[in-house]
Amino acid sequence: MNKLTTIITVLVLVLLSPAAHSTMTIATFADPAQNSSTPLFVIDLMSDLVTGGWTGTGLDLLVLNSVNYPDAVFVMSDIAITNVTDPFLGYKTDSGTITFYESDQTTEIITIEFESGWVNFFGFGGADFASDDVTISGPALGSMILAEESFAFSFTNYVPLQGSYRYGFTATSSFTSSAIPEPATIAMLGVGCLALLRKRKNTL
Which residues are 79's β-sheet partners? Predict the structure, then answer.
């Protein structure tokens, strides 16, 4: 094996290896609520329902660690809690959609769609690599291709419903989401290297 062949072979292995796929933060925000009087979520264990959203001020959504959307808002479809439970993850939920908008409440930033999720006392979220089929898309991401998307809301400032946590609770929340960007691009680089190697062999 000559030097060029060795270099291309190593490059292909590196490009196609799991280590080449780096997870990055897609969007995140700190808790915009000042206290428990303005909750972002209601976890109703009597109605088996998760409701959430934010239309106030103070939610600064940071996208791709570079673009900040001040006073962003988000709306979420009502999410049903199923009868499936896990000792570590909590209650499994049905599918839903979460959409973030700019402060005008009409210009979409990103949208998260998921086939299922998990909610417990500490938070609510889902992960594509955990078979929750999470998809993150939207104008702020352009044509970026994502894989292994995940999102998580972290609860704080709890207030029990009807005076008891067995009925559920309200909570404020911070948020983060992540994914592996452009795996198809990495794969295409690997295919290109393989083609170059094949061409090199044919000319020898």
Answer: 50
Q: What is the pTM of this model?
A: 0.80
Q: What is the enclosing helix (H) or strand (E) of 138?
A: none
Q: How far apart are CA 95 and CA 112, in angstroms?
A: 11
CA 50 to each of CA 46, 78, 119, 175: distance values in angstroms, whole numbers, following the listed order: 11, 6, 8, 16
CA-nearest of 93, 53, 103, 90 to 75 is 53
Structural domain spans, the chain: 22-203
Digit-by-digit pLDDT tens for the chain (204 residues) are 554 444 344 334 434 445 446 999 999 999 999 999 999 999 999 999 999 999 999 999 999 999 999 999 999 999 999 999 999 999 999 999 999 999 999 999 999 999 999 999 999 999 998 889 999 999 999 999 999 999 999 999 999 999 999 999 999 999 999 999 975 544 444 444 455 445 545 555
| d(C-alpha 118, C-alpha 82), whole Å | 10
Compute φ and ψ for 132, nearest 5 degrees: -90, 0
